[in-house]
Amino acid sequence: MPTLAAGEKLGPYEILAPIGAGGMGEVYRARDTKLKRDVALKVLPDAFARDPGRMARFQREAEVLASLNHPNIAHVYGVEERALVMELVEGQSPKGPMPFDDAWKIALQIADALEYAHDRGVIHRDLKPSNVKVTPDGVVKLLDFGLAKAVRETRDAVSWTRRTRRPSVPIANSI
Questions:
Q1: CA-based R_g, the chain, Å
Q2: What's the rounded Cα separation, in Å, for the pair 46 and 49?
Q3: What angle do CA 56, 41, 6 make, to 5 degrees?
């Protein structure tokens, strides 16, 4: 059962309807009353909001998302109290089986978004169909970077990865 009801407000955001729930909180469709647009609000439950570890993870997700600006990654608009304000992505999570050409188009966009994030030292760590949305126009958006990890690779590792086009694997400086 959702914690917030339609019509309730969280800052300038009016809750319209629940979208879903996960390990880090509940997601709602909300109306930004200042900018007159619908957004997605990822709201931490009160019990989580009192937990410094969960708040640190929540803050990390906000910072990671804010650092990524890519057409296939959901944009973060800000933080409000215990909520992450994000782009509302209309669409469905991919479900199979599907024609190869459709799957290929989705996979290419996911790979492009992941490459962009990896090039900036961010690993998603929770990639699954429910964290991917395909808009009615066929644009893929990656969601939920709550488990994302920022890593620092050596310059040699990044250079080796780009030369070989193999998955990013940390390499010891001695190589």
A1: 18
A2: 5
A3: 135
Catalytic residue, from 38, 126, 144, 156: name it.
126
- Compute the Cα dihedral for 58, 131, 141, 167 and give only its sign: positive
Q: How far apart are CA 145 and CA 49, in angstroms?
A: 18
- Please write the tens of the pLDDT for every residue from 125-146: 778 898 899 999 999 999 876 5
Q: What is the pTM of this model?
A: 0.77
d(CA 163, CA 165): 6
- Structural domains of the chain in order of their starting residue, each with its CATH number: 9-87 (3.30.200.20), 100-164 (1.10.510.10)
> 31 pairs with which residues across the strands?
14, 38
**Please, are residues 77 and 39 in contact by the beta-carbon 8 Å criterion?**
yes
In 52-174 the beta strands, taken as DSSP E runs, fall at: 76-80, 83-87, 122-123, 132-134, 140-142, 149-150
> How are beta strands 37-43 and 25-32 bridged, if at all?
antiparallel
Cβ(109)–Cβ(152) under 8 Å?
no
The predicted-structure confidence for 50-71, as pLDDT tens digits, reads as follows 888 888 877 877 887 788 899 9
Active site includes 156?
A: no
Both structure tokens of 76: 């973060």
Cis peptide before 97 (omega within 30 of 0): yes
